[in-house]
Amino acid sequence: MVGLNYVNLLSDHLSIDTRIYYTHNGTRYEYNTTGAQQISVPIPYYSKAPGDYNETYSDRFGAGTKLDWRVNNSNRLVVGLEGSTTDLKTTQLTAEKPTANVLGDINEKSWAAFVQDEWKITDKLTSLLSLRYDWNGINTDETTYLDYKNPHGFFPPYTYDTKTATIENQSVDAFSPRVALNFKAMDDMSFRASWCMSFRAPTLYERFIRSAGPYAGIPNPALDKESMTAYEIGMFKQFGDKVSLDVAGFLNDYNDLIESIIASDRTFQYTNITKARIWGIETSLNYKPTSEWALNAAYTYMNAKNRSYTVSNPTVFNDDNPDPTWLAYRPEHTVSAGVTFKPLNQLAFNLNGRYSKYKAISHYTNTAGLNYPGDFIVLNTGVKYLAADTAVLSLLCRNIGNVQYEKAEWFRAPGRSFVAGVDFTF
Q1: How much is the pTM?
Q2: Containing structural domain, residue 91
Q3: Domains in the chain: how many in total?
Q4: Which residues, in sequence order, are CB contacts of 27 under 8 Å at separation 6+?
Q5: Are β-strands 189-200 and 142-146 bridged in parallel, bridged antiparallel, or unpaired?
Q6: pLDDT tens track for 33-92
Q7: Lower CB count within 10 Å: N or C terminus of the chain?
């Protein structure tokens, strides 16, 4: 990733912030590194030829600008625009039926405009009103794919018909309003509440995924955006100079939530769930015993339910979860903690960890919930050094214990890894 950010204080009350960036990502999954055909006999038949792989390269170009205007001592207005275009070279995410191990092309564009008004109504009460418009679209209006649901033949290898379908939502857009209030009850205590509506466009992966290891993906030409209405209330309390506590309750109502559904024949497809709700409580505790040390701990309880759940026909693996209405991969309990040590103004060390456990997954389900992914502790550490007034060096070690774990079945999470970086300010 390469980017430039330009900030200009045009006056005491007006500033402009503009950025441009370019991001390149490359991913390759090698399914069969042997010289022999790997035979699989689920229905539908799905095998891996020697050297079979999936590969995707993306090049994303983006830009954005925002104008920040302090109208007066009690009112601040921010307006902005942003947009991006992404070109993919991929073996499986194109709208047309892929040719094995051959890269195809597809393009995705998005842009947004937003306005935000921060109004200090009284010395204690502040409001935040915002409105955002988003548009997202792809450069194709139909998709072709193999009809895995109807194999031909009595024995493998089976053959399949090719289907062509019109993409019903080639582009999606939405307005997203937000209203937030903050009330400063005392110098060391404040309360907040907010309401907002937002949306998420289906990704190219969700639209056109063709395979994932032993599973056969079926593109969904009817896939639509998901939308959410969110509510939050919270409280922040400072206890002296050393301790602070933040507690918040949230409720998110989803329409057409995008989820991956794996059928009993090992095909899967991203579909829209009509109604879903996620609610819970978040707590965060911060403790700073000295100027050199800072400690934090957080706990989240989450209740995540498919409110339109019905037993599938044909059945899907999700039906065998201990609670089939629970949304897959949403942990009920999550705990995290961290510590930062700053022996010098220019130097800081950090250590943090996280624990969670799933109670619902999408494959290899069982009514007892045995051997589900999760139930792991992953620790990360890092160091940052201010080498000069304009340069910050950083070195991160993720998963320092090299814990072997999965966030989803058959997808091993990364082991120990290192990231080195430098940030320049001009």
Answers
A1: 0.85
A2: 2-424
A3: 1
A4: 55, 56, 57
A5: unpaired
A6: 888 887 765 544 467 788 888 899 999 999 999 999 999 999 999 999 999 999 999 998
A7: C
